């Protein structure tokens, strides 16, 4: 996420490639992205601490204030995205200078239609037979599911506070998600430390959050995609960096 935080264009993948690419292009950083990202990180850290403000809870007003601060702290990720997106939207429509930080850009609305995943692939004017695609994937047909299983189990262990993780349950859930998702042209599905960290830092406590996230995602893809254009990339990077940093510190 550092490339988005600094606003440096880079196609590098992996930790070492990213570090090398950023080091080589550090002079190309965007001041707008860096400033906004720094403000976003400061905002997130500040709201994380507001629940520690001493409040007398012996009155109704005190209890309300304590609860209000707690809700504000939990909503910090959504708040910073909403605030910075609003700023970007107003700036873009002001007719003045170009927005000084990179935006997420166009997001296609809706979800792909249902179709069985076993079919030929069309790339430009070329049609690639299904079994040729399978052949090209090679060892990744085994490695991708294996990495996905390891990632899911590792994430589950990171958030169970020492409790036993049912690996079989994780594999069944992961398999069903990928089988069903493949019928909608979905990418291979597995857990992610960054998303799990964001959920954890937002106060998630039960798997019901997954259903809530799915419903909100479908609604967002149907109704809100025009507004995703204005979400600054550096804001999303700040949310992920802060969330993962505290997740690692709590391991």
Structural class based on helices, strands and sheet pairing: mainly alpha
Percentage of residues in helical conformation: 55-70%
Q: Round the Cα radius of gyration to an integer and report it.
A: 21 Å
Beta content comes to under 5%
Number of DSSP helical runs: 12
The main pleated sheet reads as: 2 strands, antiparallel
Instruction: Tell me, briefly, the overall form.
Output: globular
**Taking all residues together, what is the mean pLDDT?**
78
By DSSP, the count of extended strands is 2
Strand order of the largest sheet: 1-2
Report how far the terminal alpha carbons are from each other.
21 Å
Order of helical and strand elements: HHHHHEEHHHHHHH
Question: Uncertain runs with pLDDT below 50, 5 residues or more?
Answer: none
Description:
The structure is a single chain. The chain has 251 residues and is mostly helical. Helix content is 62%, strand content 2%. The chain contains twelve helices and two strands. The protein has helices at residues 2-6, 15-24, 31-49, 60-74, 76-92, 130-137, 140-158, 167-182, 193-201, 208-223, 225-228, 233-250; strands at 121-123, 126-128. The protein has a two-stranded antiparallel sheet with strand order 1-2. Helix 3 packs across helix 12. The protein is globular. The two termini are 21 Å apart. The mean pLDDT is 78.
């Amino acid at each position: 996420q550092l490339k988005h935080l600094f606003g440096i264009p880079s196609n590098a993948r992996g930790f070492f490639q990213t570090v090398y690419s950023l080091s080589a292009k550090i002079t190309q950083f965007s001041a707008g992205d860096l400033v906004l990202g720094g403000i976003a990180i400061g905002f997130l850290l500040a709201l994380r601490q507001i629940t520690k403000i001493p409040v007398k809870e012996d009155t109704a007003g005190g209890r309300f204030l304590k609860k209000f601060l707690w809700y504000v702290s939990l909503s910090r990720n959504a708040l910073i995205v909403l605030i910075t997106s609003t700023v970007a939207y107003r700036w873009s429509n002001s007719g003045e200078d170009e927005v000084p930080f990179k935006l997420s850009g166009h997001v296609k609305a809706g979800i792909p239609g249902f179709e069985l995943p076993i079919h030929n692939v069309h790339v430009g004017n070329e049609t690639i037979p299904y079994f040729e695609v399978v052949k090209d994937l090679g060892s990744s047909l085994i490695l991708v599911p294996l990495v996905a299983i390891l990632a899911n189990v590792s994430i589950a262990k990171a958030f169970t506070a020492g409790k036993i993780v049912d690996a079989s349950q994780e594999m069944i859930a992961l398999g069903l998600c990928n089988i069903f998702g493949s019928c909608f042209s979905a990418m291979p599905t597995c857990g992610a430390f960054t998303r799990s960290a964001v959920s954890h830092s937002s106060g998630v406590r039960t798997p019901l959050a997954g259903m809530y996230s799915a419903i909100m995602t479908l609604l967002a893809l149907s109704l809100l995609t025009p507004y995703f254009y204005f979400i600054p990339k550096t804001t999303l990077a700040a949310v992920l960096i802060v969330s993962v940093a505290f997740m690692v510190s709590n391991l």
